[in-house]
Amino acid sequence: MGKxxxxxxxxxxxxxxxxxxxxxxxxxxxxxxYAVLGPAHYLTEISWLHDRSYFLPHRNLALILVGIAIVxxxxxxxxxxxxxxxxxxxGSVLASAPASRLQRFVAAVLALCATALLIASPEAFAIxxxxxxxxxxxxxxxxxxMLSGAMKSRSPVQFALVAMYLVSFAAILIAPPxxxxxxxxxxxxxxxxxxGVAPALGSVIGVPHLQFDARIAGxxxxxxxxxxxxxxxxxxxxxxxxxxxxRAIAIAVLSAAATGCxxxxxxxxxxxxxSLSLMHVLLEFPLNAISIRQLGESFxxxxxxxxxxxxxx
Length: 313
Hints:
Blueprint: H1 6-24, H2 28-51, H3 62-73, H4 78-95, H5 101-120, H6 124-153, H7 156-174, H8 184-194, H9 197-205, H10 214-233, H11 235-238, H12 245-264, H13 266-300
Helix pairs in contact: 1-7, 1-10, 2-8, 2-10, 2-12, 2-13, 3-4, 3-13, 4-5, 4-6, 4-13, 6-7, 6-9, 6-10, 6-13, 7-10, 12-13
């Protein structure tokens, strides 16, 4: 294994710290991370995406994603909500597709086939709307970014970090944390706000009536916490912190205000964070699509298509 650098050591320490805390506070950590680390992550990433035109051919296309997020937030029907999230994903995939007509055609056909499969199942869109902005976003896309970075650098240490991430994921599933709660109020709130993830996940993996127990809570606590910490520790790599002072102050104030909403009213706080979270998830879809395509190209050894946009970090 290659010599571990300062940044890789920080990644490992934060990953192990998130894993440890997910065992100590499986229910409480999820809400604490979401309320404290979440707002800063959402706002700084939106700022970073904005400076890179959201990895879209035209920055103004991002307004469509924002519009979809707003409409989805005011939608009470789970299926409609999921359909809107799926629409944002498919639109992002097609908008960020390579310049080749053949590749755009293939992407469109695959998108239509995937959509047809979802339409065939009455609950598919509701499940998609639950899982895509939550566990898929914070776990699968984090894994893709980590693996893509390791493939680009060919660093044995970074491949080891990817493996450690998967081991941590598996450890919680195989040896789940205790059901005991330290702060019952926070534990009950986590169950109330994130409890829907468990049955949706169970529908996908074939485990009916899956409950939001310590295993699922610990898993969500780990992936959410490390997702946030992984973003913050990459500041010097992707330079999301290189922003005007006025914007940095505005982000700090808005982040503190969003967290402060929880001190005033939990429902209000969750509503504010859900809005920020969904908006940042949808605005990140084009980057996710590009990163998945680049990862596939690195496996097959094809040369990346130049599209005039900045490459995914």
